[in-house]
């Protein structure tokens, strides 16, 4: 047997043993490659992420790696990242290989691959037959959805890996009569990065600690609580010493700012009608997700009544998944469609298959006749009901190329404009990711993620047109690039609107129109001339209006 034949034989054997894994990975990589090709074509060969938030982490990582400054700008500390681990990881890579826009993308492809491996391994460990394993892997790819998370360049895939690894190890310890020391040490090691990847991970950690207390394993519960709190407390102290809050502004302000914008904008009938479809879809998905959480808890209750114990693998997975979904939707973020729930999707899929696996057929045979119609209809309805909370998430798969195009035609163009005409200028903005990553501007962040004085004004309900004008003068702001609809009544009367860009086919932007203001007459002429000069570089489908077009 020659080398080629031997290699092909080994590959063939591997495929037959692990065909769900090979199939799932092939689909993930092909989808990612196709979306990459389409995205590059849409964006004139430029690689762009599908969300401006990715560039916030990248900006902090860049400044920390190059200047030793943990901030969105290189000019000072800012507590703007809710994922300390992701930003640190990017910073470490930038320090080693240099700042590169592709790093989060490549890293997320690797992490997405690891996610598929991990879910496959967990289901094989629990002896789930290949066909059901493949179904869950498909769910992870299309419902999380992993390709979308790859293209937004953020921490959510890393969070999925840490969460399901942590739950898997915890469940093994809680349900085993004899505990392997390695599992315990791995659990302790995982606790620190899990707490640092996103702050809501603390809820899961405390749940697990509580289960250890119920099982009277106190030596397990208290160390993981301590290991979860210590790194976040250290960061909180550093933040306070730098004049910021104990928690990152992104954690403090997100719900506040969202509520403020909604409350302000709800007074405007046109805005209300524009968000009505999104509001309805949010309510529907919220209710479906709640129903799914209750189904998981109902299955857990059924299993408990049957076995008289909660200390079974499926039951713990079901309880954790159901409770976390409910807590996430009620107390953290009530939009099930958003990326923040991706880890719950994967947890829920694993919990569901473990919970119902004992009652599923292990061999498939379809004998169709008139008497079987009600049976198959019933099965179909049950499957649709169970999968409906996940199906809405596939929407994000359909908008990957267009979302990158939106960011390219708005935030990327804003960054290009500032890089060319205001490379070291002082700018006010409400979308701060790309414009800071691609430039070294001084940035007054109107949302307050990277500007603490603005954040405090929002928290104290003192943010208004006069306060904004005072802040702009203090920071020597020359121009503002903002969404007008976000700041109705809060734009200073002495600011001069010079122009606006409207991006067509908006699927992901905060608003399709971004407006340019000179903060005083002394900057007006220069801004007009700069916009005129930059105008030919803009993508042809961007609609331009304002003084500079006259």
For the structure shown, list the relevant keywords.
550 residues, mainly alpha, six-stranded mixed beta sheet
Question: How would you describe the overall organization of this protein?
Answer:
This protein is mainly alpha-helical and 550 residues long. Among the domains are: 247-397; 400-549, no CATH class. Helices cover 65% and strands 5% of the residues. It has helices at 3-17, 19-42, 53-67, 84-97, 103-125, 130-143, 146-152, 156-175, 181-197, 201-214, 218-241, 249-265, 269-307, 313-332, 342-356, 373-391, 395-398, 400-421, 433-437, 452-459, 465-474, 521-534, and strands at residues 426-429, 442-445, 479-482, 496-502, 513-518, 543-546. A 6-stranded mixed β-sheet has the order 2-1-3-5-4-6.
Principal-axes shape call: globular
For the CA atoms, what is the radius of gyration? 25 Å
Assembly context of the chains: single chain
How many angstroms separate the termini? 77 Å
Biggest sheet, in brief? 6 strands, mixed
Arrangement of strands in the largest sheet = 2-1-3-5-4-6
What number is the mean pLDDT?
A: 89
Question: How many E-type strands?
Answer: 6
Q: Low-confidence segments, ≥5 residues, pLDDT <50?
A: 256-277
Q: What are the secondary-structure elements, in order, as H or E?
A: HHHHHHHHHHHHHHHHHHEHEHHEEEHE
Bin the strand percentage: 5-15%
Indicate the percent of residues in helices: 55-70%
Structural class: mainly alpha
Number of helices: 22
